[in-house]
Design a protein that fits this description.
By secondary structure, the chain is an alpha+beta fold. The protein is built from nine helices and nine strands. Helix 6 runs antiparallel to helix 7 (181-199).
């Protein structure tokens, strides 16, 4: 099996994602999903350029069928240079990526890859598309049902997108991780404080607000994504 979608990408050069175009394809395809990882961090207002677009989809057969159709329409294929291996659950409850040597069967399966909506793990690979890097992360970041319950709704290029909550992102980034995550954590905490200040001034019905109005730090990012369309 190839590297799972959320496995470490160190040393792998991939095409930067056209986030707005990829999200539009998913939206138009009716795919229920939550944006996770670095793209979610960016959409919360942190100044960074994500190396890929991570999404956690709902795993019902109908939704994965729609996702498979979208992946085909955007030319998704497994990234050819990704290492091979598998996920293992450690004694501490953390999933760890175990790299293994590729077999001829592994190489052949990668070249002929087609996701199977009846097998969610068949989507969990480093993918390259006609619009840059896209990774489907079925469960490593949390299930869709768990993430959507706490997710934030923002607007990108005129359509609604659900992104992983600041709290869930911080839970991932504040365990011992990469050095570059330190700045992301700091800026996420700033976004969290800004959101808390906003929530003190609005009714519960107003929680799903526009990204540009909610997080001033994200205005330039939001403008770039909107202008890209």
């Amino acid at each position: 099996m190839a590297m799972g979608a959320s496995a470490t990408n160190a040393g792998i050069e991939r095409d930067s994602p056209d986030v707005a175009t990829l999200l539009e394809a998913l939206s138009e395809g009716g795919v229920n999903h939550v944006v996770t990882g670095s793209a979610a961090v960016m959409l919360h207002g942190v100044d960074l350029a994500p190396g890929d677009l991570d999404i956690t989809p709902a795993l019902d057969f109908e939704n994965l069928t729609r996702l498979a159709a979208v992946l085909e329409s955007i030319g998704a294929r497994q990234y050819p240079d990704a290492p091979f291996g598998h996920w293992e659950l450690g004694d501490d409850g953390e999933r760890q990526w175990i790299q293994t040597a590729a077999t001829p069967e592994d190489v052949a399966a990668r070249a002929s890859w087609r996701p199977d909506p009846s097998a969610p793990s068949s989507f969990d690979f480093l993918l390259q598309t006609n619009h840059g890097a896209l990774d489907v992360v079925p469960t490593v970041s949390g299930t869709y049902e768990a993430l959507i319950a706490r997710a934030s709704a923002v607007r990108v290029a005129g359509f609604e997108v659900w992104i992983e909550s600041v709290e869930d992102l911080l839970a991932t980034l504040t365990v011992p991780r990469r050095g570059k995550d330190r700045d992301r954590v700091q800026q996420l905490r700033e976004a969290q404080r800004a959101r808390c200040a906003l929530w003190n001034r609005v009714d519960a019905a107003d929680y799903g607000v526009d990204l540009q109005e909610t997080f001033p730090h994200a205005r330039a990012t939001h403008r770039n994504l909107t202008d890209a369309k």
